[in-house]
Amino acid sequence: MDVGAMNLFHDLVDDAGLFPPTALPMAEALERHRADLMKADPVLTHRFLCPASRLPALRATLTFPIRLGLILDTPELPPLGGLDVELVEIPGARFETPAGRVEVPGGRGGPLDVKARQFVEVTAARLPVRLPPGTGLKIRCGGLSAEAFPGAHDLGAFIAHCADNDIPFKATAGLHHAVRHFDPALGVDRHGFLNLVLAVCEAVEGRDPVPVLKLTDVGELVRRAGAVSPETVRRARELLVSYGSCSTSTPIEDLRALGLIKEDDR
Predict the structure, then answer these.
(1) Domain 3-255 class?
(2) Residue ranges per domain, the chain?
(3) pLDDT digits (tens, 9 = 90+) for 32-53
(4) What DSSP string describes the chain?
(5) Which of 65-79, 92-106, 168-182 has the lowest mean pLDDT?
């Protein structure tokens, strides 16, 4: 596998072990995170996603340094002193003004550290929104019901919007496996994280991302991943910052099974 293609998957997966459907208890989630840190697999960002409402439990349980992604599920920012918060994810619907402008909240924790990137969650139907300078977007790719899954055209429109406007984004939920597949329990097609990454590559090269989002031919997806140029990899991964996964092992296992990474790629 070309080094540029391998870099498609570096620093891709945030640790969302606290969230459904896995929903690990805090102590168990942190223990798994510590084990992942020891393994140092480059597919993982080694960033721990935590709701703001659970920061007290995190502080009470934490025994080692971690890098945090904060999910703002509280009315204001809590105190962040002593925590290495790299990014903050904000539900846009809660902080959107009538004019369509998103106002990032402050709080008892004071202004965000300058290195903490901010991402506002939206749906494709709510685009465009007026964001504060330097703010990215977040898209939900699934959930616990069929209604939570955006169609390929809606997700493609979101990706194209971000590519056309140089807006970095994060993805979350529903991306349980590399390749798009049908979930009989929910009666819905689940998006694949490999499809998502390659769709972003299509968008930065000026092509429609929707056909790749719909693609289920495993061999064709693997071929495309191996053919991405280093410059497209760079641009695509500047756009797609990461996605949150409740499993930190399945993405790695899927990529290895497809031959896109090797056991010793670390």
Answers:
(1) alpha beta
(2) 3-255
(3) 999 999 999 999 999 999 999 9
(4) --HHHHGGGTT-EEE-TTSTTT---HHHHHHHHHHHHHHT-TTEEEEEEEEGGGHHHHHHH--S--EEEEE--SSSBPP-TT-EEEEEEEEHHHHB-TTSBB----BTT-SPPTT-EEEEEE-GGG---BPPTT-EEEEE---SSGGGSPPHHHHHHHHHHHHHHT--EEEESS--SSS-EEETTTTEEEPPHHHHHHHHHHHHTTS-SHHHHH---HHHHHHHHHH--HHHHHHHHHHEEEEEES-SSHHHHHHHHTTSS-TT--
(5) 92-106
